[in-house]
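Sequence of Cytochrome b5 heme-binding domain-containing protein (Polarella glacialis).
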Amino acid sequence: MAVASDSPSVLGVSTSVVVTVLLGVASALAFLWRRIRKDESETEEDEPTGAQEELPADGIFTIESLGRFNGVTGPLCMGVCGKVVNVSSSENITVGQGYGKLWAGRDATYSLATLSLKMEDANTMDFTLDQFTPDQVQALAGWYKHFTHKYPIVGRLTEYENWDFGTIEEEAKSQTPFGLGKDKAADSDAAPAKASPAPEEGVMMRAGDKVLIQGVESRTELNGRIGTLLTFVAEKGRFAVKLEGEEDPILLKPDNLSKAAAS
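Predicted 3D structure, token representation.
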């Protein structure tokens, strides 16, 4: 004979069992919700919330301090042959992807010479230039000319202070910057009348420097004018330049600026 239950039932299942299951589901959902919120808050903390760190005014970097200029906490910079270049305007070097994942905020000298895409080869310092083969010297010289020709040099790495890159710099003079045809490269090698020296020779330009505007096609009336370098606008990939007699600064590509000769 069946024994009557004091607890009501739903589809033959005790109400107490149903309540227990529902409470368990509610607890699981509450835990999942808290976990999602925690993950979201951690992600938000990882994202930059304020202005990026400014480049050092004295242009002096160490391997450690260069790491902060990774395109997130500071402008996207990388090291090559002892120099630090600001590649924020590059379309091929972006944060967290491809070359940017390898070299953003790091020294790429060894990697460029050996054509290595291994993460562990970035910031490598336990090598000498003498150990490179002629082909590796040529490769490094080509990349050196490419980066110092196309992007502004914003400083130097102290770890390379006693290194002599004369061989690389000399070899670079015979190299064609990547992305330029020979005719255009030949034109770029000739220093403008009022500029000294040519951009690819590694001129370091800083805020306050007098610069010569050249090669602007959209506003040819600007060519030949002298302005004062203000700052690098990373999101635009351009320098802000204040022209004499003008109230508002203008934005110009690095390729359209060279350091003006002292008067």
